[in-house]
Each structure stands twice: as C-alpha cells, then as structure tokens.
From TrEMBL:
It comes from Lentilactobacillus hilgardii (Lactobacillus hilgardii). The lineage of its organism: Bacteria, Bacillati, Bacillota, Bacilli, Lactobacillales. Residues 18-366, 377-578 form the DUF2264 domain. This is DUF2264 domain-containing protein.
Amino acid sequence: MKRKLFNEQIKDNPLRSKADVKAALTDILAPAMTVLAQQKQKGRFRMSDSGAVYIQEKTEIEGFMRLLWGLGPFFSDKKRIYEYPQWYELVTQGILAGVDPKDPDYWGGDLGDYDQLFVEMGALTAFLYETKETFWESLSHQKQQQIVDWMDQVNHKVIPKTNWLFFRAMVNKFITDSGYHDNSTLIADDYAITNQHYLGHGWSYDGYKNQIDNYIPFAYQFFTILTVGLADWKGDQAELLRKRATAFVPSYANWFAADGAALPYGRSLDYRFAQAAFWAASAYAHIDLPEGYTLGDIKHLLLNNLRWWFKQNIFTTDGLIPIGYSYPNMVFAEGYNGPASAYWALKTFIFFALPDDDPFWTTPENDEFKFEPVKKQPEPRMLVCHSKHGLEVQSFTAGQHSHEHANGEAKYEKYVYSTTFGFSTPKGSVLLKQGAFDNTLAVAESEDWWQTAFKYEDYAIHDDYVYSDWKPWDDVEIKNYVVPAMPWHVRIHQIDTNRQIHVAEGSFSAPDYGKSYQKQLPTKVENAIFYQTEVGITGIVGLSKELTAELSEPEPNTNIYFPKTKIPLQTGVLNPGKYTLVSLYLGDRELDSLDDNGQLVIPKVKLNNNKVSIIFKDHTVSVELKEF
C-alpha cells in the first residue's frame, strides 16, 4: 500500500481489531525504518539535528532505542520476523553492534553519571523480554554477555532518584532472570527508594513533591506494571505495584474526555500518546480492576486516546513524528527532548504483544464513557471537572511548581488546563502577545516585562474551589480563588499592592482559522468578550471596573493545540491600594452556554462577604471562601 503524505491513512483507522492495531503500528514504524535503513552507523536513528542536554550522538542512539518500544511488541510474534525480515535485521544488528566493544558502532563502555542511555536501557530490556525466544535465546554466550556487560554500567554510575530508578530495576530484573547475576538486592534497594515517593490513590511524585504530571502515569505507573508483566514477577513488591495500579485506575480515568483526549498538563507532552501507556500496561500485566471498572473500560480508554491522537497533525510529510504536541512545535519542548524523543510514545503499543487469544482482543470496548463531574484529586493538587457529556475536561490547579524545566510557570501554575483548548507557553515576556497569557494572571511594572505565578506562598484544594496566594514582589500580594461551574468558572483576586502594577488576565485560547470559522458573539453585558470557533466558545466577563476586556492575538505557535490563536483578555493598571477583582470565564466545548435559539446565556455572579454565588436560570452554585 502506498502511504499518504503526513501518514494521513492512520486518521481513518478505526482501531477495532488487532489487525487495525498492527496497521497503525506499521504506519508509524515504516517511515522511521526507511530512515534507519539509510543510516551510516548501526544502532543510530538520526531524523533531525535539533539539540538536547545530551550530545548529538546520544540523541541518535536514543532515537534507535525508542523505536524498540514499538519493534519489541511487533516482533514478539515470530511470524512478523518473516513478514519484515529487513526490519528485524536492522534492529537486531543495531543492538549487537551497539553492545560490542570491538565494533566501530559501539554505544560506549564509558557511560558517565546521569547518562541519557541509562533511560534508553529500559527500551532495550523490554525488547529482550518481548523477543526472548527468537532473539536472546538464539545468541551465543559471548553475545549475551556483551549485552549484560553493556547494561551493567547502570549499576556503577550515579543516576537521579526519580523514574530513572525503574530503568535500572528493569535492567537488573532481566539480568537476574537470564541467570547471569542475582541482582535482586539491587532491585529491592531501588524500589525501597521509589516506594517512599508514593502519595496515595496510585500517585507518586517524581523527584519533587510539587511536580506531579503525566510523567506519573506514563513513567512511575507504566514502568512498574510493565516490569511486573514482562517478568511475570511475583512477590510482595510486585503485589504492591499491582495494588497501586488498581488504585490508580479511577483517579487517572478522570484525566480523559469522552472524545479520547487526555488532559495536557506539565512537562514531556512531546511523548503524546504515551498518555495511554498506563492503560496498555495494565491490560498487558492483567492487573485487577477496581469495583465498577471492566476490561472493556480499560480497552476503551486506551484505544479512544489512540484514535484521538491519530486524528491530530502529529506527522511530518515523510510520516515521522517531530517534537511537538498536536502539531510540530519546538516552543514548549524540554531540554531533554531530542529530535526522536517523541517515539517514547511507542511504549503504549505494549498491548500489541498480547497473544491473539488474550481476552483483551475479544472483549468489546465499553463505549459508555465513565467520569465524575467533579473529582477532587489531592495528590496532583487539582479539581478535575467534566462537561455535561464528558467531552471536555478542565483541571483547576494550585500548588504545583516546576523550577527545572522551561516554561514551568505555564505548564504547572495556570488556573485551568483543558482537553479542548489546551494551554499556551510564552515565546517571550516583553509584550503581552509574546506571553500568550491564557488562564493566568500576568503582572508588570510597566507595559513590558510580564510575569505570572511561579511558586505560590500558599494553596488549598477544596471540594468546590481552589485557592492560591502569590507574591510577585515583596510589597505585592495576590490571593486567588477559582470556582468551577462548568462550563463557566469565576476567578476572584484579592490584590494588596504598594506599587503601581499593570495586570492582564486571559480566558481560554481558541484557534484562529480565519473569518469563515469564527465569530464574536454579541452580548448586552458590559465589558465582555465571547469568541466562537468550531471547537467551542471561550469568553470573559470583567466584573471589575479596573479592567477592560478585548480579544487579543498572541504570537503563533504558543498554544499546544493550535498554531494560531485568539484569547479573550482583560487588562488594566492598578495604583497602590487594595482591590477585589471578580471575573467570569467561559470554556464551552458542548455549547452548553447557549439557549435553544443559539443565544448566549450569561449567569450572574454575586460576592457577599466571603460567599460567591453563580446564578443560573435553573440553579445556583454557592461557595464559601474560607481564606477570604
């Protein structure tokens, strides 16, 4: 079959059978394998030359290793070796060259502390487990020993006490299972550390307690359950990991919308459909499901997310996956995102290694999507809210913080994150259009040099609102209260300033596709802007006379979903003094804010002492703000 530009055929794949899954995996792998076949060095995949915190050669080895996440499940069935002998030759010869000290394409026997290749050893280990009968067991003792010796370097160097410990544990589990060394004590030592990171409801923290994001499901949870499944691991630690995975199911399920989209939040969004990797590993390891959940639910969460992703513009013209999210975008990348880092998403295809007779393939998907309208999640510090029919997820956050990664303030410390409208990361801080300040409050001492919240002084996640306290300067304090009432929410800011400050606050971003796809909705309410596109309605009602609302146009390529956007934004200047600013915001995927005639119905907002009321025609949402 001739493949279309941009891998367009994958958008039409229904993903209803194992044959469909095979077609999707083949579509993703084929362009990469074409490039791999052209490489001058074995065990290298060079698809571009953008930089990372590790050297260029390591980015090429990383690229090769990350393809193993798809190639391992693909070749777990030996009949596919006969179907794709060139691919199998490329990957196995690349591995054998990479671990052979005498080969010119050796990956190196002098790996340093914190070496990126320790991460990639996870992919190699998984491949060895998945193809054990056809590849590992066909090797001579000398070749096996070379693999073991190369991977054993991880036991003699310093690695961070984060998810990297799981890669080392995977390596040592394979070395132990293969009979070369008994490294079970080393495995236990690493899990003794990561067990201390556990928070509850399946959540752990990865290095920093204030930084809890998608990395937990597709790293902490995925690699633990993957190891249990690959090694058929028994014992107390394995049982503990299984129980945590079971506990995680209802919590993480609420990060998904009915259309398959997952909540974009935090770092490493370049890994895209790794968002579904937890569901894949859970199916592969046959974890016990909590009450109310079935294998059909897990299957739907997994495949629905993949279907959503395959409809996005994630491929280049040659079918490769570049750095980005819903489109190629370097703006929000982390320093550790190399040119081929995105292929880490292939680890989600671990479920393809399930044999043909596994119940996963015969169990029907449960298309009746389960969600809780409002779910308080104390571990990731969120109120996770769904729209009426579950097509939109909004996460109201406070207290998260990431100091090591680029644009951490945008990725962790905005008021709201959305599966429909995404979020934006700034290109600069001089002009408002560079900042793309959706769902956050920005302040400056002039019309230039804006800043947003970066580490709160205090925070609280309540059952019905979120509170945070921010001090941009020693003589300025801003207390924030965010009250969800889907698809609306209210933000209240208590500002105490001893200096003149400029303020700007945005609603949700929405795509700017041109006039034929968008319109500003008329309203009789003063100081209000509403903007409708094919993805929904965003808007703002400024209820404080100090600020003026308008529709702004930020720099392109700032939003993770849409290359070009508009943001309802309110701005103003505050002289020294105390202020209480109240605003109403709309992010409406399901057009729930319109009446039967297509007219916008705006709720009323009242603030009486510490009680805020959002008054609709048929009900009222009332919340007492304890910190007010």
